[in-house]
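Dear support,

We are seeing what looks like truncated structure output for some complexes. This example has two components. We would appreciate it if you could run it in full and send us the complete token output so we can diff it against ours.
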Amino acid sequence: MIEGMIEAWTRLVAAAPRPAALGRRWLGPLMCIPALALVTAFLVAPAALTLHISMTDMSLSTLGSVQWVGLENYRRLLSRPELPKIALNTLLFVGVNLVIFNLFLPLAVATLTAAWEERLGRLVRPLWLLPRVTPSVVYALLWVWLTAPAPYGTLNQLLAPLGVGGGSWLLSYPWPVVIVADGLVGTSFATILFSAAIRAVPRELWLAAAADGASYWQTFRYVVLPLLRWPIMFVATYQGLSLLASFEFVLLLTNGGPGLWQTEVWSLYAYHQAFSYYTGGLQMGYGAAIASLLVGFGAVASLVALRLFRFAELTAEPRLRAV
Amino acid sequence: MRSIAIVLLGLAVAVLLVACRGGGEPAPQMQSAPGQVQIVTITAWAGGNPQTERGRIGMLEKAAERLNAQLEREGSNVRVRVEGILDTSGDMARKFVLAAQAGQAPDIVNSSHADIAAWAQAGFIVPLDQYIAKYRDSTDLKDIIPNLWEPMRFRGATWAVPQDTEARPLYFSKPLLRRLGWSESDIGALPDRIRNGQFTLYDMLRVAKEAQDRGVVRPGYGYWTRPVFGDNYWGGDFYQFYVAFGGSLWDPQSGRLTVDREALRKFFQFHHDAIFGYGVTARTVIGGTEWKQWHETVSRGDQVLFWNGGVWQWAEWAQGYLGGDEGRLWDNVGFALIPAGEPGRRPTTLSHPLAYMVTSEKASGRRNQELAFRLIALATSPDLNSEYAVQSKHLAILRTQLNDPTYTRDRFLAATSYMVEHAFFLPNNPDYGRFDATLGRVLLALAAGQLNVDQAVERAIADLQSAVPELVVR
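Here is the complete output from our reference environment:
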């Protein structure tokens, strides 16, 4: 619907008689207004509001009389003893998930299925979509039942004849279970992107490499992979930021436990402080401060990623034009 | 082409405007024509199990008929109609807070008395003293068991009317005790021994250990606490063991939350001993067991030797897990108070009344407070409450109910009513949620083996003092 609106607007503007004073230089900015309005309404305004709330004492106790407290929530947050643990948990969660399940595994799956006959690839690739299309709560419940202690857990039932297991896998190995469960959801997204990118490589390049005596893997390594820089950059940045802000499977599987902050990630910490009723007292001001720091970190991380992947180069005007 | 584009764009804008218009118009509160009957819709929210606790709304609906009859006798042209919702998500309290902030709360909310402090402070509910004074003598409010008014009070005012109450017994398996060599008279005498302080928590752990060592129960099935999994931690049941060791949660005079260092140590030591010392509590119970798994296991009555739960669970087990066969529960399961922590202390149990509260105009956007209160007062009647109590296995809130055949005919309710005399209540303090969460996190860490007892005590007190600035540490 948004694209349709933009297209309709474009045609309208193109067809409308333009006053001589306006000129073409106003056309671009005018066409950006709808998108800017949406970004302002749904991104900039909420971020500004969150920043404002982070400087108040808004909580369940003060709902009738919220007061401005300046940077007090930030001071309180930075003095929390659990903060380094939560920061490390976040880096672990994002780093391992991104590298293994959003870059390495999707590239591997996309590469392998690209080498197969198209019909077989078309059968296998959608299987990776299953975790993504399954509702989150259902998917998390499946993992809970898979890792439950004997006699309930599927894993324990399968391993019982081997004399292995018996306890709760989720309780004993919370991080591996959370990362694998969450990672498999992200794998599908990157797999689709990489598969499409690999298929978009001109056939002539494959033939030219083959003519020069390169094997499939050599062609992939030296010809195709460099051409995947754009989708890899996109996935790394997009999924990295998504992981920074996501906590649904940590919440559903371990709720940040077991025990003291063992799998608590930054975004979940913000959620707990701001929105847990009995357990957090709805400390929305404090939670907003935690979220604001995450937004700031995300913005810095985006800029670093764009620099790392030489985004300016990727979007520069080509030196050669088609005649 | 241009005209098509303009039409499409206009349609898109119209769709956006309609979508952004927000929720539908609320149903009209009063429907009337001049001189005719005015129907006032009273909205009510409650949380609970749909199989056994639907009566929390049902009592209000039946009370509406009585209130309409009263209004007719008074010559009023106002009649009430109840629109009730029983929320089964377990998240009704949070939904209520968000609704109240938006001015869309229901007229009546049924929730834990522990919510009173925060909601009163936020101005979401109204004090009821003036209405109680006006309607007490003409209704069954005067019949409410006196100590049940205590948890309804906050900062000198009464903010709610008790709707139900309960106790949280120690359950035990009769067939497993028999297999351990206990006679029928031994088993029958156990509740009284606990009541008299002759059977303590550590006696329970020793019996559980013996059962485990002799193969009567599987390892880790000697004693089960309330299950904890994910975000379902709720400390109320666990504080029974803190109180059993002489601890107190709050100072009723000042209203401040308290923690007793020595009782806290013994509380952590007990749970540590249960999991790691005696090894009778599986680690997965505190941290890795869902309610469904827990219910399925304990309700069988022959898997776990001792466990603590709530009286209302008797109905859940009978109806939800045993196909309505309550007789099987009587054959296999016994119940008693939570034993004293050590010789010289007293047995205890937590009573956690739910209460009807009337929301303020700020929270609901309506001025139905007095009508809502009258509805609550009429719902608080022996016949309605007894019917609800029998179905849900909650305990009586009215003195008359204790002689009501509907109530006394129920064998389980008759056998557990004495527990309320030994009950304590949770604090009415706005910081109780943070207190509970902080202590719970430390308990979960202890159960996970991350902290020993000394570390748990120091960590708990430090974190509690940080989370609850007005905490009193004794």
